[in-house]
TrEMBL record:
Active site residues of this protein: S72
Source species of the chain: Nemorincola caseinilytica
InterPro entries linked: PCMT (IPR000682), SAM-dependent_MTases_sf (IPR029063)
Protein name: Protein-L-isoaspartate O-methyltransferase
Reaction it catalyzes: [protein]-L-isoaspartate + S-adenosyl-L-methionine = [protein]-L-isoaspartate alpha-methyl ester + S-adenosyl-L-homocysteine
The enzyme's E.C. designation: 2.1.1.77
Protein family: Belongs to the methyltransferase superfamily. L-isoaspartyl/D-aspartyl protein methyltransferase family.
Length: 223
């Protein structure tokens, strides 16, 4: 884990070139939100992986990180972020900080982000990550995402980055009227991406998007 500490890693023309290609491939796969694409172009994804995987950092693939978890595929990050229809100054809740890559993509968009991770080892590991320190708008918590964060609720947007067995009721409650929640739903290896909207009267609407594959959303904290 040493590489997370000390001096920032190098972000050179090669990395920047690979990022441009990655953004190009995301455009071809249908990502149209320019702010999301600009965020992906700005963030050195190789900072989030072990140095041995520097080149793979810019392939459109998920990758193992620590504690048996994964950094989501760039396409998935872009797709979920695009579905959130982020507006400047939105207050956003993310469940599943993981590597914090998705958190930084959101952090680039001028919002306030509260992000929860249930694995203590991963929560501590990310705390050493120098790159994250530039995002004063990202607040991290160690806890169970099923509970949400009642103290800071309601949220304009909620993003779940692990496969939820059902729509977590407390998170639905913590979504503002007019808000959007994006959540992969399903108990198997594959989930359906669901865009949930809450209207001004508190009614919930669900729209099913494509199939995706996430690590499961688990209850309780893990030390
Ligand atoms: N957003 C991450 C994706 C990480 S994978 C990234 O960009 O890298 C999903 C993460 O969700 C894992 O780290 C897993 O530990 C976490 N997770 C699973 N269930 C959870 C829960 N109930 N509350 C909070 N985090 C949870």
């Amino acid at each position: 884990m040493q590489y997370l500490q000390g001096k920032p890693k190098d972000d050179n023309f090669l990395h920047k070139g690979l990022r441009k290609q990655l953004v190009q491939s995301l455009r071809q796969k249908g990502i149209t939100d320019e702010r999301v694409l600009a965020a992906i172009e700005a963030i050195p994804r190789h900072f989030f992986l072990d140095p041995a995987f520097e080149r793979q950092a810019y392939e459109d693939r998920a990758f193992p990180i620590t504690a048996g978890q994964t950094i989501s595929q760039p396409y998935t990050v872009a797709y979920q972020t695009q579905l959130l229809e982020i507006k400047k100054y939105d207050k956003v809740l993310e469940i599943g900080t993981g590597s914090a890559y998705q958190a930084c993509v959101l952090g680039e968009l001028g919002i306030t982000l509260h992000t929860i991770e249930r694995q203590k080892a991963l929560y501590d590991y990310v705390g050493q990550f120098f790159f994250l320190k530039k995002y004063l708008n990202i607040k991290r918590y160690y806890g169970d995402g099923f509970e949400g964060l009642p103290t800071y609720a309601p949220f304009d947007k909620i993003l779940i980055t692990c496969g939820a067995p059902f729509l977590p009721p407390k998170l639905l409650q913590q979504l503002k009227p007019g808000g959007i929640m994006v959540v992969p739903v399903g108990e198997d290896e594959r989930q359906k991406m669901v865009k949930v909207t809450k209207d001004m009267d508190g009614r919930i609407y669900q729209q099913e998007m494509g199939d995706f594959s996430f690590v499961p959303m688990l209850t309780g904290k893990n030390n």
